[in-house]
Amino acid sequence: MTWVEHAQRELSRTGHRSGGAREEVLALLGRQGCLLSAQEIHDQLRATGRSVGLASVYRAIELLANLKLVHRVDVDGTACYEPADPSGDHHHHAICDRCGKLAVFEDPELERVLGLVGARLGYDVGDHDVVLRGACQDCSAQPAG
What we know:
Helix content: 40-55%
Number of helices: 6
Shape: flat
Largest sheet: 3 strands, antiparallel
Strand content: 15-25%
Structural class: alpha+beta
Radius of gyration: 17 Å
Number of domains: 2
CATH topology of the largest domain: Arc Repressor Mutant, subunit A
C-alpha cells in the first residue's frame, strides 16, 4: 500500500471527506517523499495548473499532521513536511546553515543508540526526530562571510 492510499484510508476512517485541495496535497506529497514547506507545496501545485489556495494547503497539512500522517521538520524557521511512512521506517536530515543544502540519511547504529538512551531514561520511545545542523562539505571549505 502506498503512503497516499494509507493517508486516504486514515482520513476516511476519521470521518474526513476526500477530494479537492486535500487530494492534491496528498498526491504531491506522495510523489515528493521529502521535506516541502506549505508555500513550496502551493507553488508546485500552481505550477502544474492546480488552482489550490494557500489557506487550503495549510488546512490540509494541519489535518495530516494532527493525524500523524506527515512529519514536521523546522528548516531555518520554516515548517516543512514529509510523508510519515506507516511502517515506521524513516530517515533523518542534515541541513547546512550557510547554503540551506539538505541531506537525507539513515543510520541503524544511531537508531540502536537512541533506543538505548530511551531505555536508560525509562522512556518507551514512540518517535524521534534527528536534524543535524552545520556547514556542508562545500561551505566548510569556504571562509564564512
